[in-house]
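Researcher: Let's try something more involved. This one mixes different molecule types, so please make sure each is placed in the same coordinate frame as the others.
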Amino acid sequence: MSAAPQAPTTSRTAADSTRGRWRPAGLNQARITGGFWAPRQQRNGERAIPSGQDQLESAGNLQNLRLAAGIGEGEAIGPVFADSDVYKWLEAVAWEYARHPSDDLLKRQRELTAVVAAAQRDDGYLDSVVQLRYGDEGRYQQLVWSHEHYCAGHLIQAAVAQVRCTGDRGLLDVATKLADHLVASFGEVEDGKIRDVDGHPVIEMALVELYRETGTEAYLDLARWFVEARGHGIIKEHGHEPAYFSDRLPVREQTTVEGHSVRAVYLAAGAADVALETGDTDLLDALKNQFAHMWSTKTYVTGGLGARWEGEAFGDEYELPPDRAYAETCAAIGGIQWAWRMLLATGDAFYADAIERMLYNGFLAGVSLSGAEYFYVNALQLRGSAQPDNGRSPARGRRGWFECACCPPNIMRTFASLDGYLASSSATEIQLHQYAEGEVAAELDNGTVELKVDTEYPWQGAVRVTIQQTTDQPWTLELRIPAWAEGATVDGERVKEGEYARIERTWSAGDTVELQLPLDPRVVGADPRVDAVRDSVAVERGPLVYAVEQIDNTASVDDLHLVPSATISATHRPDLLDGVTVLTARGRAGAGHRDGWPFAPDSTDATGDEVEVTAIPYYAWANREIGAMRVWLPRG
Amino acid sequence: MSAAPQAPTTSRTAADSTRGRWRPAGLNQARITGGFWAPRQQRNGERAIPSGQDQLESAGNLQNLRLAAGIGEGEAIGPVFADSDVYKWLEAVAWEYARHPSDDLLKRQRELTAVVAAAQRDDGYLDSVVQLRYGDEGRYQQLVWSHEHYCAGHLIQAAVAQVRCTGDRGLLDVATKLADHLVASFGEVEDGKIRDVDGHPVIEMALVELYRETGTEAYLDLARWFVEARGHGIIKEHGHEPAYFSDRLPVREQTTVEGHSVRAVYLAAGAADVALETGDTDLLDALKNQFAHMWSTKTYVTGGLGARWEGEAFGDEYELPPDRAYAETCAAIGGIQWAWRMLLATGDAFYADAIERMLYNGFLAGVSLSGAEYFYVNALQLRGSAQPDNGRSPARGRRGWFECACCPPNIMRTFASLDGYLASSSATEIQLHQYAEGEVAAELDNGTVELKVDTEYPWQGAVRVTIQQTTDQPWTLELRIPAWAEGATVDGERVKEGEYARIERTWSAGDTVELQLPLDPRVVGADPRVDAVRDSVAVERGPLVYAVEQIDNTASVDDLHLVPSATISATHRPDLLDGVTVLTARGRAGAGHRDGWPFAPDSTDATGDEVEVTAIPYYAWANREIGAMRVWLPRG
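Model: All components are placed in one shared frame. Result:
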C-alpha cells in the first residue's frame, strides 16, 4: 500500500500575484476546517466532482477529447465549448486535491490529462470540437462564436491549478505548448499574425496566470494584447453587434459593464490581472469605475449579475427585474473573481464585501444543499403559477446538468478553491476577508504566523481569532468589517464598518481577538430608480439575503406584503435545510385584486389580513419543493 | 388609356363568416373616408407598400421566389420564412386595391403572382427557401422550424384577399393547388399521411378562409385537424419544449396563452375560425377562457402581448415589465385578429373594446407617423441611458426593415384592411364597433341600409351617425359603448358602458344619432399582482394610452412621479405629431437617489420638486428623437 497522497506544501491559489497590495494565502495556508462552508466543500468533493465526471461522460465532452486523441471513431457531440467544461472540472479536481488529497483524484486527473495531451495537435493547437468538425482548416474561422480561446483559457487555468496543487506537470506541458501556439498566432497583422479576439473572454485571466506560474513574459504580453484589442471594431468587422461581446468600447474607455454578463466580468477580471502585473494604474482606474457602476446600477441585492435572459446580458442602468433575473451562476463566479483581483490590487474592503454578497447569495443559490443539483438562472422571484419554458427555467427547480453545462463545473472549482479567498498578507499584515472556521498561516517579513479562526458565522456574529504561532516582531491583524455591520466591535471596542479594523501589536501564541458583528435583521429598500421593486423591501441578516418561500407561509407568497417597521425575530433551526436561521416578520396578505382587465382607475394598494411571514436564506430556496418565492415584498 | 381600375363591388373582408352572430361589413361597405385613420392608410398605400416591395427585393425575398421559379441562378437568402413576408405584402396590395384601386397595384400584384405561380412545384408544394436549400427531399423534414405551413398560410390569405378585392384568380389557383397538396399530405398516419404540425401557426386561419371562399370542406377539415393535433406531444416527439409552440396542451384544454406570443394568438384565431364554422361551442368556450385569462393577466395596458424577449413569449401571470416588454407588433395584430373572430362569434363588446385598445396603442406604436419605419418590439419604458443591444432594440428607434421582417408587411395588410373592422350586421341590426369618419352599408333582410359617420374620434368624443339610405322596416343601430366610457350618452340619454347601445326604430334618410363618449383623462393603476408597476399610474384618454417622453419634459423622465389626484388638462395641438391631444399633469421630480450600493435601509420614497408633466399618446412616441419614455409613472 502506498503512502497517503499529499498536496505540495506550497499550493498557491488562483490570481496569486506578487505585485498587488496584498498576496493571497495559499491553499495550504488558509484552510476551512468546519462551520458553514466545510460540509459544502465536502459534498462538492464527494458528490459533485465524481457525478460531474459521469455527466461529462454521458454528455459526450470526454468522448470528444478521446476522438480527437485518436481513440475510437465518431463525430463531435454538443456545443463548441464542450472542452471547457472538462477543463473546469479538471481545475476543480486539482483544487480539491489540495483540500483533500486522494489517490482517486490523482487517478482521475492523470487519466484525463493523458487524453487531453494526446488530443493536442503537434503545433500546440487544441480544441477537440473544432478538430473533429472542421479540421485544421477550420481553426479560428469563427472565433467570435467558436470559443477556441475560451477553451484554451480554461485548459490553462486547470493546468496551473494542477501544478500548484498536485505537482503534476502533465497539463502544464499541454498548456504552455498551446499558449506558445497562441503567442505565435495572434497579434498584429503587420507581424504576420491573426488580429482577432475570442467572442468569450477568459484567455486573458488564464495567460496572466500562466505567466505568473512560468515567468514567460510573452504570455502576459499576449493577455495584454487581447485586452487592448477589444473595443476596436473587430467583432463588428465580423458582422456582429459588439456590445454583447464587450467590444463596443476599449476596456480602458468603458465606464460600465454591458452585454453578456459572464463574458463582461471575465474580461474585466483578466484586465485586472493585466493591470496588476503591468502596474497599469489607468487601466485599474477604469476597472474601478466599471465595477462601481456595475455595483450601483446593475447588480441584484443578491449580488447576482445579468438582468436579461436575452443574450444572458446585463440590462440598462437600474433594470433589475426580480422575476426575470438571469443572474447566471457563472456570472456570480466571474464577479467574485473580478472582485478578488480588485481587492488584491487595491486593498479596498468594498471588494471583499462584494465577494461576500455574491458568495453567500448569488453564487450559493446556484447549488442544492445536496451538492450536485444546480440553478443556471437565479431568479429573485418565482410566481406560484410559473410555467417552466426551457431547461434553464427556475420553475423546473435545480437540475443535475444542462445542455450548456458551464455552471456546474464552475461551481465545483469555486467550492474547491474557496479557502483561497479567505485571507491575504503583506510584509507585516495579515488580512482576514471572509470569516470561516479554519486556520490561516502567512509568511511575514519576520517569519511565519499562524492563526486559528473559530466562528459560527454567518449564523452567529462572533469571530474569535487565536494566535497559534507568531514572530517576536509586531505585525498587524486586519479584519474586514462589512459595510452592513454598523456597531461591530473588536474586543469590545467599536470599529468602523466598510473597512478593515487594524490590530497592530507584538503578539504571543495564545492571544485572542474577539470580533463581534451585529446580526440584527435589516430591512432594505431600493434606490427609487430600480423600478421593478418599487415600494418593496427585502430582508437581510449578516451577509445573507432572505427569501420567502410558499412552503413556509400560509398566505399566497405571490402578493404577500411585509410591514417594514415591525420587529423581525430570528430563530436558528438546526433541523431545517441543513441548519438555517429563520426570520419571522409581520406581514399582510394581498388584497385589492381585480377581476378581468387589471388596469382600473387608480387607488392606493389595499392590503389584507395580518399574517406571519417566514423567511429563509435565499441560497436555501428550492430545496424542498419548487413553488412561489420572493426576495422583495411590497411594503404592507 | 384604359378605364380607371375598379374593385369588385363585393369585396368581402377577412374572417367573413356567415355562421357567426354577426357578419362583417365588406371593404366596399365599410369605408374610412377621413379623420384619424384615413391619412395613416394613405401613407400606408403611398409610402409603406411601395417601399416594402423595395425592401423585399433588397433583402432577397423576391429573388428567392424567382430562383425557385427557374429565373436565374443562386442560393436562397434569408430566414426560412422569407416567402411569408412576400405573401403578407401581396395581401396588403390586395386590400389596398379595394381601398384605392390603381393600375400600379394591379401591375405589381400580377407580376409577382406570376413568379409565385411559376415557383410552385407540379404537385402543389411551394416554399422557395426549402426548394432551393433542401430540394424535394427536404420537404417537411423540420416542420417545427421550417415554417412551410406558415408560408402556405400567408399565401392562402393573400390569395383570398386578392380574389375578393381584385377579382384576379391567379394566386387563388396557386393557393388551392397548395391546399390540395396539404390535404393530401397531412393527417393521421393510418391514412398514410404525415402527422405533424408547423411550429408556427397561421395555416389554420388560412385554410378556414379558403374554405369560406371556395366551399371546399376538406380545407375546413384540415384546419380542424391541425387545431386538434396540437397538444398531443408532436413537438415533444421532435425533441422540443412544447410550451413555446402552443403544444403543451390540447387547444380545448388550455386555459391561458403561453409560449411564443404570435404563434399563440394566431393558433387561437385559427381555432376560433374552426369553432365558428363548425359550431363547436366547447372549443369556443375554451377560447373565451383563454382570451379572458390573457386579457386579465398577460396583457399590457397598451394591449401589447408578450412580456418576454426570450422566446418572444408570453410571461407568467402578471409578469408585465414595462422596460423589457416585448409586445411584438405582430402579436398585437394577431390579438386583433383573434378578438375580431371572437366578436363575430359571440357579439360580446368586450372583444371590440380589446380591438380598440390593441389598435390605437400596441399596434399603432409599431409604425412611425411617416408610415414606413417600424418597431418590432414595443417597450412601455425606455430609460435615458438605454443602450441598443440588437436590431430590434427600441433604443435604436424605429427602423425601415428588420432581418426578421414579419412586422412591416403585417402592419401594411392591417392598415389596408382596417375598414373591415368597423362594422358588421345581422338580419335587422347594424353594429358599429370602431368609430371613424366614414360610411357603412349593410344588406339587412329588408334591404340596403347606408350610414355616414362623422367624428373626430379619438380627439373628440362626439360621433354623429346619419342615415343615408334605409328600408321602411324597423332595424336596430348598435353602437359600442367602450367599457372606459362611463357617462356616455346617445342623443343625450345615458347609456351603459361595456356593451352595445341599441337604437331600434323605423328610420328615415337624414335621421341622425349623436353618440357622446366622455374623454376626461383617466388615471389608472394596476392590480397589485402586476409587480413591475407597483405604486405607479398610467394616464388614458378615450382609447389612447399616454406616455411621457423626455423631449416634452424638463425633469428626468427616468424617475418622474405623477400626482394622481391633480387635475390633468387636455390641449389639442394640430401642429404636433400630425395633431395630437397633449395632456398636462402635475408631477414631482425624482429624489432619494442613492450613491453606490442601491439597496440601503428602507425608507419610503422621497420625491423632489413639483414639475409639470407633459404626456403624448403612446403611439406617437419616438417620432422626434429616441430618448427616455414611460407609460407608467410612480405615484408622486
